[in-house]
């Protein structure tokens, strides 16, 4: 008999978004999101923000997808909010409408951080403003040598504290480096980003998508429940002391030890064969 929570899960492979491309690869286990306005360097609109948020909110209930690749079309990642479709309308809004918008953009970051699937950003060319945030909010980041990442909010008269930048970025590259990028809005080049730990690795543009999918595929073939637990603990342990973190990890690991994947891994090791993880 299928339990009620399992029955709530559903495949997302057939989803057809309006404002970006969505495709499954690696046997349906890796979902690839491609921002697809290359003529404008893939800027976001009110609608694409909301649709991305809704997709990430649905990922915890996916029965097929185990890892995500987020990338952009045409040699760029994302140039941020569209100047004419977002920035200009914002200048005419009252504060309640502005707050609704900024909370919606924050909800996208929350959904990316909350989904159990590891998210790999594949960054080529421009990653600016909200585009830099999308890369930052991902779990892993690959870039090409020509990638340029800019948290340029101060360049348009806004604070650097946008969409979680003042809490997430310092944890990735350090407080001083984050402060300098957020105050100045200057572009961080790819080599600097890799040296500072923002980017996991640099790959050539023609290999970027395939490398990101390959890494996502390796994660998708791994223990999905354990990966989800790792992601959750990385998120939750930011704000706790060592003693509390140790107890949280003890409970998390005990739960993982109760899974069939743990048993399968032991049996595979004993039989001297690679384990096959099913995520249960």
What does this protein look like?
48% of the residues lie in helices and 13% in strands. The chain is built from 12 helices and 9 strands. It has a 6-stranded mixed beta sheet with strand order 1-2-3-4-6-9, with helices on both faces. The protein has a 3-stranded mixed beta sheet with strand order 5-7-8. Strand 2, helix 2 (46-58) and strand 3 form a beta-alpha-beta unit. The longest helix is centred in the middle third of the chain and has 20 residues, at 95-114. It starts with a helix and ends in a 10-residue tail after the last helix.
Q: Kindly report the average pLDDT value.
A: 94
Number of helices: 12
Estimate percent helicity: 40-55%
Q: What order do the helices and strands follow?
A: HEEHEHHEEHEEHHEHEHHHH
Q: What's the alpha carbon Rg, rounded to whole Å?
A: 19 Å
Unreliable stretches = none
Please tell me what the overall shape is.
globular
Q: Would you tell me which CATH topology of the largest domain applies?
A: 2-enoyl-CoA Hydratase, Chain A, domain 1
CATH class of the largest domain: Alpha Beta
The total count of strands amounts to: 9
Name of the CATH architecture of the largest domain: Alpha-Beta Complex
Ends distance = 16 Å
CATH superfamily descriptor of the largest domain: 2-enoyl-CoA Hydratase, Chain A, domain 1
Secondary-structure-derived class: alpha/beta
Q: How are the strands ordered across the major sheet?
A: 1-2-3-4-6-9
